[in-house]
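Appendix B. Chain record.
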Amino acid sequence: MQLSTRRGFLRGIAGSSLALPWLESLVAAAPNRAGPLRMAHFYVPIGVVRRGFFPGEADHVIPKGNLGNKMRSLGRQDPDFSVRPLANLTPTMQPLEASKAKVTLITGMDRTFQQGTDVHAQCASCYLSSAKPYTIEGTAWPLDRTLDHLVADEIGKTTPFPTLEFSCNSHKDNRESIYFDNISWYGTGHVAPSIRDPRAMYRRLFSRSESDRYREVTSLVLEDARDLNRQLAAGDRHKLGEYLEAIRSIERKTERLEKMKAELAAVSLEEPPDAYLPRGEYIRLMGDLMVVALQAGLTNVATFMVGPERWDTPFLYESVFDKPRSHHQMSHNQTEAIDDLLKLDRFHMEQFAFLVERMDAIEEADGKTLLDNTLLTYGSGLGDGSTHQYNDLPIIVAGGGQRVQTGLHINMPEGTPLANLWLTQGQLLGLPANQFADSTGIVDAWLR
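Structure tokens predicted for this chain:
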């Protein structure tokens, strides 16, 4: 058996490797070891329907034909600061009911739009940098090195991957520029390429050579795993078994989607075959890959883009619609598609809730869960997709353990920069900075 206890890898034949979760039996005095704090961002494109997401806005019904009015016609959060328990969840947030005690809704946060570039492209590409408008020379974009890479400079030095970039845009039609389809950037004009194909991400995480092309990684290291099992306490044996089964499940789901795509490619369809892949299954599969990467210490920082901005090629949102639909096209027809958009917002929240619950079920070294030791942020670069407003962005943070307050609705004063939250997260993760982009302070009410 070849086992590296420092990083916890099992190595099988043909060059395959399998990173292990934390196992108490392999680490001396492990109960005293605190789990590392990690960061992951779950990005939803094109904003949300405000009255379904934000507390207190359900009664703001917009008369048909009035969507061209001022942005404020859709309602705003209370402009004054307040902190209250996260009590009755809005229809869009209801999938989080089981995890309500471990999430915090933060409203009232804004970004400043820099004139001269597309609204959708800027809201995605600049979401994690929020640079002050007109301060980045040589570009029309207020885009600087993004928060994930700044944090990885501090906590990504000892992991195999400083950051991992996940994207659930399966389409290859390149309808828009890279600014519509990426939230992670090494710096101005230098995108951190995301991986969209589950198989490609799987191979990146668990190395495979030509000789094991048709065999599961877990099978290749199974004999070493059996040897390791003899060293483990009963609880760790159960934990290792669950982890190996999770990897096998990822392999099987990947193969199922690949088979489905091959079958669709043989049929004459109006849309690309990828448009007919079940959307939720695709997102959850990529989410499973992100979870095992964080669980096994392959990375401490990840970004997860649910879909691209302003991409008219449709997706099949199974259990919601019976045929592929375009999120962007629906967002500009709210008077007719409002009910469908509300269903889609809830669908996206269900995928986020899946990740929250999945991470909260994984125990770590300090007795807390993977979710407790991760700042997992749901957010969008638009407050509302139909009006393109950059104020009152929909932001939810899950996890954080003993470091932050949870189970709250924190409403920030009107005009609070989103960069204040990014600065707060950065400081929690060891970033030695007192300023981030256009920040004016930190979110004190969120901290313990």
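Further analysis of this model is presented in Appendix C.
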